[in-house]
Every structure is written in structure tokens, then in C-alpha cells.
Design a protein that fits this description.
single chain; about 210 residues; alpha+beta; five-stranded mixed beta sheet; four-stranded mixed beta sheet; globular
Length: about 210
Amino acid sequence: MDELRERDPEELVQPIVLRIDKEDPSTEDEGLSAVSRAAVIAYLQDPHNPDWQQWASQAFAKSVRRANPKMFAKVLEMYPDQMVSEVGKAQAVGLPPLPAANLPKLVAKLQVSGTELPKSDEVLSSTVNIAVNDSLQMSTGKAAAQCAHALFAWLAESDGQGIEEWLKVHAPVGIRHLSRQDFEALSERASGPVIQDAGRTEIEPGSMTAFVFF
């Protein structure tokens, strides 16, 4: 199911491409961290671009798409100025906002649904962490988009000093999977908005999916 379904064709969406190597895959948490970082890094590269301003004034829609190593390399050739987010074995690149109905063919044909990465018992921790509501049983791709929403929402509401200090240490992002009860309890200490999903794919509208905490 494509996350762009039912969108206004003129709505701007930020594509984020996650490299999936079937032979040597990253862990799910590495992928979630890499995607969320990629979304923010792309914005910080050119925050005064009018397209970013229009996109941020909407629901900052994102579309996480997967690419095998060959296709990922082609995306980087098309967007050579975009910085790659690397976390462990995971690589992701965030692109500038584009009209939902007018994505480049190379990007448009990359799959959205069914993106899965293997889970790991190792906890990925940092000073900036994203809590994920594990009770929703989101796919890797869906959870990645929610993590990216949460990190950008935190960025948008943070003071410049906090962001500057985070960037100085290369913007690490930890991931914490929580039960519904623990998620709701920790949300009282959230450092940014608690993301509620629009319900276009996988989960019910209004479901609380992710937030940033320190």
C-alpha cells in the first residue's frame, strides 16, 4: 500500500530512501535511526529553501522507500549534494520536498510497502532517543516514517543551542521500543510532540506512534 495514496497531488512530500541489502542487512533500529536522521539532515542542508518552508507548514509528509544497493547508488547519482545518513550497517538519504504526484521516475518506482529489517536485542541508545509504540506492530518502513516525523517535530520546537550541541556530536539518535503502557507513561516526559498517525496505512487514525525523549 503506497503512503502517497489519498494525498492531494499538489501536496509536497519528502521522500527518504533506505538502502536494503538482503545479503547483509542492517538491524531494524539502525534503519529507523538512519531514516530519522536523514530526514532532518536533508532539511538542515538548505532550511531556507521555499519548498521546505511550504512543506513544514503542512503536515511535513514523508514517504520512506526502499532501494537495493544498486538503486540506492543511482539515487545518490541523481542527488549528489544530499548527505547520506549512516547508522551501523544502515544507510538512508533524505531528498528535498517534491509534489506527491510528480516524483522522479527513479524514486517513484521504489517500493514503499513491505519494508522489513531484522530486529536485534541490542539497544541503540543516545542522548536524543525516539520512543516507538511497539503495540502497534508497525512495519519497519511505517515505523521509520513515524520516527522521522518525531525527530523533525522535535527539531522544529527545539532551541538553536540544543540542536547545535546535538549536531556537534554527529546527531546520534537512539531507538526504544515500548509497550503501550510504557509508551504512554514515558510520553509525559517527551521532549517534543507525540506523533499521531493520519491513518493512511497500516494503523488506525489518531494512533500515537513515536516521540523524542532525552
